[in-house]
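Form 7-S
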Amino acid sequence: MGLVHEVNRVGRRSRFALLVISILSLVVVTGCGSGGESDSGFSKVQADSVVRDLGSFDVARFKKAKTYDVDELPGAIAAYMGYYKTAVSEPVQYELRMYPDHATAIAIGVTYAEEVTGADALLRSVDVLWKEGTKDRRGGGASRGGLTPVYGDFVVFGNVIILCEGRDSIQSLDRCEALLIGAGIIAAD
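Output:
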């Protein structure tokens, strides 16, 4: 009986140690992975006290294509889909979601942005929390029945959440950074 008890005790310790190591690994990967910064070191979440609206992107010549109804997007005060083109690129699609402040964008808006961006993005309106604009967030492709996500990632800059077109997080974050630079909101490196 003593040997069986000892084997069970060691087994529990090993499982616990494996669980702790797995959790720590997940925290390190999530906190330090490519999802947090672009190639240039641009940070995905940046606090800023300036409250911005669509006019803040006029300098970049952001072309608004749609204004979304935000009645079902908790905390949001406005949302738009549109395009921005640098001198050396084709137009890139963006979705701008405005909140009253940075804290609201983080506390409420991030959950809604996470579910519709990245490789695992939800692409059907029956699956998402906010249904408005769902068709604009998906493109054609070879996966998931011909649907692929348009937005590879997003940034939170002050009170604005920006979903940026891209095949992956790195390309999307680079494009988010390009829009913010084009709008004069951040300086180029």
